[in-house]
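During data preparation, we tokenized the protein backbone, and the record follows.
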Amino acid sequence: MSALQKEKITQIKSSYVDHELKKQQYKQKRRRGLIRRLIAFTIVAAGALLIMANVIHSQTSSIAEKNAHNEELKITKEALLAKKQSLQEEITHLQDEEYVLDIARRDYFYSKEGEIIFKRSSESPSY
């Protein structure tokens, strides 16, 4: 019976009802527009957040690689400084004539006039 009654009820056609109906439709449009804007803003914000996270991740890995390379360079620098120090010492020794003559006698069998050098088997030449 209620279905029959609904068909029999007619709607009131007045300016007030039309005005309220338009007002309701306008509110629905505004609400749909707001929801669409919020969804679009959320998508843009999420995209920006993902891009920033990617940039931060790549920069972090790049910094880690550079720190590792920096440590390797520090180790190499220390080794080169030690080698430089030993070479500086060798230069100062080679400038000493006694040292050079001692090396010539020991390694190249250089002898003074009238001197005889006998080589023992326990010594091995460094050449």
Remarks:
- The chain has one domain: 18-108.
- The first helix runs from residue 2 to 8.
